[in-house]
Amino acid sequence: MPRCDLRGRKQSFSTTPMDADSDVALDILITNVVCVFRTRCHLNLRKIALEGANVIYKRDVGKVLMKLRKPRITATIWSSGKIICTGATSEEEAKFGARRLARSLQKLGFQVIFTDFKVVNVLAVCNMPFEIRLPEFTKNNRPHASYEPELHPAVCYRIKSLRATLQIFSTGSITVTGPNVKAVATAVEQIYPFVFESRKEIL
Amino acid sequence: MASTSRLDALPRVTCPNHPDAILVEDYRAGDMICPECGLVVGDRVIDVGSEWRTFSNDKATKDPSRVGDSQNPLLSDGDLSTMIGKGTGAASFDEFGNSKYQNRRTMSSSDRAMMNAFKEITTMADRINLPRNIVDRTNNLFKQVYEQKSLKGRANDAIASACLYIACRQEGVPRTFKEICAVSRISKKEIGRCFKLILKALETSVDLITTGDFMSRFCSNLCLPKQVQMAATHIARKAVELDLVPGRSPISVAAAAIYMASQASAEKRTQKEIGDIAGVADVTIRQSYRLIYPRAPDLFPADFKFDTPVDKLPQL
């Protein structure tokens, strides 16, 4: 069973090994964390667009994009007070960025209350040390895996219990999306034995 | 004698001697007969026999004792509506030249969309000469999807195209998305999306496509002889077995195999021609060809007659 290290955080999820022979450390790199929060007050988008720094006003859609530098984050601000924050590389960073954003809105004069912070989506990338035979993998994992080479070169594997989706490429690289970081790590651990079965042996 | 013995709901006629007896209907003569004593109770009830005689040597294509179009009970839920025809002769036209009685369209409104879709499916299938069994399967799939209503927001044409794709796959003669795209007005992206949604809605899955499924079609379109086709099939199959082309679409591998086989034979085809037929870009064929070129001697079948020997194959 692999020991998954989530880069960006100094903790490694150690799992109980099912087959104790291979203890491979897999690096799961979190590339994107998407979160939402509410400011509990109506926001005047025009004011933010005029006075705020680093903003893009999309008037046709009705939202403002604000990009922060320090945690590299792009936030979509709606006038209802709901804000979507993307681009963070960890859950903590997402929270810092969201708070920083709320603070900058507060400085502009709005009565911001930071509520309902929730991480909605986490995107991570993982690299297997071997290549994978996709047709074989699909045959062995019939209902969960779907492979359409004409549409997309990867196998799309959905784990319903974790609400996670994995895209498995033939080079061994796997893209995972899930509701939080823990689900993503669990998903990789779950998929490892199946992927290991259908690996391509290096001659 | 009688065909149906149904419960006489309206107790208008009963046999005078046996009031409890259920009357039996003789459709031929139009009689209601009491089964107990044989008394003919009703007389000249509507006769459902044919109106005129037909002789078997008549060789007429129409059967005069049949009325209306052939029913499609599996699909349309009963098609017993009447359409007003266009009208022949002078009397059917107004003073301005418009036809009197224009409205001939209101029929089976509940299934109109479905019937339109069936027509569209038949048209699409006609364009690529698909046999009737695939069209029937497509119609069935469409009906199932339509009744489920889970894809209600999607364009019917998109769902129809996706059903056609799935039907071809299920029958073992898959068509590429690009081929379906060519006969449909829907984009490949939308057909692909509907395809995945339909598989989820109907909870079915389809087999993976293999290179061999397309060989006969592509090779016939390129007018390649049988040996070349068999060689190409062998090359493609071997290439996939040896996993020389990981991550490549089977169509691209098939196209590259056809290129290699045709270049080794007397009937050479350019990458552009093959790309045109297969719907693959010629750079893609070039990429896949580069992957299979190193192992070319192993991929050819043992009994292949080389017009151009293996080492003289073009290297791209």
Structure overview:
- The complex is a heterodimer of chains A (203) and B (316).
- With 203 residues, chain A is α+β, with helices and mostly antiparallel strands.
- Chain A has helices at 45-51, 91-107, 134-140, 181-197, and strands spanning 3-7, 12-13, 25-38, 55-58, 63-68, 73-78, 82-88, 115-127, 131-132, 145-147, 155-159, 164-168, 173-178, 199-200.
- In chain A, strands 1, 2, 3, 4, 5, 6, 7, 8, 10, 11, 12 and 13 form a twelve-stranded mixed β-sheet that branches. Chain A has a two-stranded antiparallel ribbon with strand order 9-14.
- Chain A is elongated.
- The model of chain A is unreliable at 8-21 (pLDDT under 50).
- With 316 residues, chain B is an all-alpha fold.
- Helices cover 43% and strands 3% of the residues of chain B.
- Chain B is built from twelve helices and three strands.
- In chain B, helix 3 (132-148) crosses helix 4 and helix 8 crosses helix 9.
- The longest helix of chain B is centred in the middle third of the chain and has 17 residues, at 132-148.
- The termini of chain B are far apart.
- At the A-B interface, helix 3 of A face helix 6 of B.
- Chain A: InterPro entries: TBP (IPR000814), TBP-like (IPR015445), TBP_dom_sf (IPR012295).
- Chain A: This is TATA box-binding protein-like 1.
